[in-house]
Amino acid sequence: MESSIVDSKNNPRHRPLTPPRVLRGVLCLIVLVLTAFILLVYFGFWTAVVLRFFSVHYSRTATAFFFGSWIALWPFLFEIINQTKVIFSGDCVPAKERVLLIANHRTEVDWMYLWDLALRKGREGYIKYILKSSLMKLPVFGWVFHIMEFIPVERKWEADEATMRQMLLTFNDPQDPLWLAVFPEGTDFTEQKCLRSQKYASEHGLPVLKNVLLPKTKGFYACLESLKGSLDAVYDITIGYRHRSPTFLDNAFGVDPSEVHIHVRRVPLRDIPTSEDQVASWLMNTFSLKDQMLSDFYSKGHFPREGIEGGLSTMKCVVNIVLVIILTGTCTFLTFFSSIWFKIYVSLVCAYLASATYFHIWPSPILSL
């Protein structure tokens, strides 16, 4: 059955914003912030900094275990608590590939829904993003992003190239699982940005796109060039929402979206050209196809070949939540009833995390080994 979908932030909310939803959302955010903070203080410093002196591989493995468990709380919030349907379509991809993900950037929370796919493939602790640097400066959440080695960018290639290439070179070890996510549009979609993008396209003989912005090619090419010897494939991901693009608070309070549709196209690395000009052309063609796919989605209400992934296991999610809460609760108990020296240690780690973010000294020499 076909149905018209208008994906706009101006549409009415799918569910009303009631006091119980606000209370539930606030409580969930408090749990997410507190558990992240405790994991950072008690485990993040040791796994991502101290252990890295001895082994980068085991450092990343331990960090992925603890913070992958924390990331798994978010899909539980979206799909189980808020009852948002996440529908996957396209190619069924294997679980253990090292991949580069490219996706359209419809709204500020697209990247969070990639966690839903990563969780189903056991890669929630190994997914890394290229994110704007302001997100890396957030208290607590920004610390997690640094510990997990997300790459901060200013969205100006002259300023970003050196940092990107330096960090990308640290991801070349084939024994380290990797999902590196890139949003080639460089910013989320708005009507005003779309008009500017269309004007630029018209003036330069490029495709005029309606549902996505023109992709920036240099960062994508740098990722391919730096990682080509250790990647298996590129996952071309297209995200569509019914019927309203959500904000972060919409997600937290469970008022939107009603459905998230994620289409996955697996492209073997051998099918992607190697020269910079050819890669730029390939990426432009990919986004032209993505634009048409989104037009079809808004008219039909779905992407082709749905049902490639099942729903989340409620039991596994509950077990994960219980383990995270027991782990963080035990650490909190120890803090209150420990010696003064232990409390001093906790204070010093907090000071380190705060100063590292405030003075923007991430990644430290240790993290970039």
Automatic annotation (TrEMBL):
Keyword Transmembrane: yes
Catalytic activity reported: a 1-acyl-sn-glycero-3-phosphate + an acyl-CoA = a 1,2-diacyl-sn-glycero-3-phosphate + CoA
Ranges for domain Phospholipid/glycerol acyltransferase: 99-221
GO MF annotation list: 1-acylglycerol-3-phosphate O-acyltransferase activity
UniProt xrefs under SMART domains: PlsC
A GO cellular component annotation in the UniProt record: endomembrane system
Enzyme class: transferase
EC number: 2.3.1.51
Family designation: Belongs to the 1-acyl-sn-glycerol-3-phosphate acyltransferase family.
PANTHER family per the UniProt record, alphabetical: 1-ACYLGLYCEROL-3-PHOSPHATE ACYLTRANSFERASE-RELATED (PTHR10983), LYSOCARDIOLIPIN ACYLTRANSFERASE 1 (PTHR10983:SF16)
Listed name of the protein: 1-acylglycerol-3-phosphate O-acyltransferase
